Amino acid sequence: MDLEHKPLTTAKDSVVIRPFYPSDASQVLNVYFTGLVSGVDSAGYFAVTRAFLHWTPMYIAYILSFSGGGVLLLALRTDFQILGLVIVLLSCCFILLIYYRIRNTFLGYYQDGLRHDMTDISQYYRQDHEKNGSPIRCFWVAEIPSMTSETGYEVVGCVALDCSTNNNGPLMGELKRLFVLPTCRKRGIGTKLMQTVIAFAKEKKISSLQLETTNFQPVAREMYSRLGWYHSATRDSDFEAGGMKMNFVEYMLPL
Ligand SMILES: CC(C)(COP(=O)(O)OP(=O)(O)OC[C@H]1O[C@@H](n2cnc3c(N)ncnc32)[C@H](O)[C@@H]1OP(=O)(O)O)[C@@H](O)C(=O)NCCC(=O)NCCS
């Protein structure tokens, strides 16, 4: 099948799932960044929300900064004013430090991807790999029509299949890079992207799929369970946000 130019699936509201074109690169990186680091329901967003809204040390920092601010305003020209200033500065530094640490962690994951398959998506996921009996890989995007974009469309989601191990045993593929822009969620695009990978994997005689997510992505986990994936393993990470440790969670789907 020529995957270069044929849309694989068309959703009812003009969403088209098709293989990646090189001209999609910058839009895909935006979807990737939003989905991992900054957008609603991304792991980075979950970690920040958890730390800022559900963590006792953060509440203490809020209370201290308000009380320090009060002392600063009321205790004019007394030694207490310096104390108030120190309390405000220390609590603000704590809040900023937590934010910086969380953001840096997820920027690190983003940059790891940039050093790996996301550096040059067309090269890593190129279709002619298969011709030499080499890895089966493909990268898809979800596009919607756009009046404002020069290309006439906007990339709003992506997903990848990476089936690199081919040691004469059953083929096992990895589903990766599943992201949908927050403005386009809950329209079935994520599900359609996954169905596209599953259909392609079946066509390529891949016997099972695996994926890795985290306990900081509850929406994605819920979706995997609903689509028949089963939880196969959990690995600890060193990272903790808002008093909650992040774990890497693996899922499998026999095909
Ligand atoms: C996970 C993700 C790809 C789902 O994309 P999507 O286009 O919203 O998916 P769908 O529209 O197919 O919805 C899947 C289900 O999740 C539900 N859902 C989506 N967003 C939700 C939210 N914020 N809260 C609760 N449920 C939500 C949908 O209602 C739907 O369930 P339903 O079929 O029972 O109605 C998207 O939320 C996302 O990009 N999240 C951030 C990145 C991420 O976690 N990616 C996974 C990497 S491992």
TrEMBL record:
Domain N-acetyltransferase positions: 100-255
Pfam families: Acetyltransf_1
Keywords: Membrane, Transferase, Transmembrane, Transmembrane helix
Signal peptide: none
SUPFAM superfamilies the UniProt entry points to: Acyl-CoA N-acyltransferases (Nat)
Source organism, top-level taxon: Eukaryota
UniProt KW Lipid metabolism keyword: no
Transmembrane annotation, as ranges: 59-76, 82-100
GO molecular function: N-acetyltransferase activity
InterPro entries, A to Z: Acyl_CoA_acyltransferase, GNAT_dom, NAT_camello-type
Protein name per its UniProtKB record: Acyl-CoA N-acyltransferase
